[in-house]
Amino acid sequence: MTINRPGLPQDLPPAEKLWARWALLAALGATTADELRPSVHRTGRWIDDDGLHWDDAGCTWWVMSLMGEGRYVLYGEDESSAVKWHEPPVDMLAGGPAWLPWDELRDRLSGYELGCVYWYENGTWARAPYPDTLDDDGLDCGMGALADRAEAVDLVAERLTPMDDGPDADTVLAQAEAGRLRDVDTLLACVRDPDGDGPDPSAVARALARSGLAGEPATG
Fold this sequence. Notes:
Layout: H1 15-28, H2 32-35, E1 44-48, E2 51-55, E3 60-66, E4 72-78, H3 102-110, E5 116-121, E6 124-127, H4 139-147, H5 149-157, H6 169-178, H7 184-190, H8 201-211
Antiparallel strand pairs: 1-2, 2-3, 3-4, 4-5, 5-6
């Protein structure tokens, strides 16, 4: 899936699928040590009480939160975003619904940390209007790998050890996108760390449960 610059709401997959892809990757990389680390010191993809996170410790950070049944918010910043420096200023929260995490978003705005905000309700993504002179809001660089299913499959494959009787990355991702992983125990046995560290199945299982992919209710 191609994301325009600046992004358009229709560039994003349905929020449930975006959540599933992101949550699966966050879970497959989960460790107990990272669970104990404050969010401000974490990098990569992870899930906590605030939702899903992606932070590369330099160029990009993003949060996706479940705000109630069928409602999601996606916000963050990539260094490619020109929104906060645009003249005249862009009101990233214009038209936002009442259920957005307004205190958090306004706090981020006051610190010049926010690059764009998208929200999802009734099966549709939306964002504030942009001026024609805005070149980029960072959505492509930030979310491109998760918006493109083939790229998401490749990322999942990096976290799985191929096994004759184990699921492949495409199958695992399809199950996640359908809302429920079928054989969590087999999946846990396939998890690997591409960086060479030993996998942490207990942390992976906790993250899957928190995300809702293992049958437990998702955060929010």
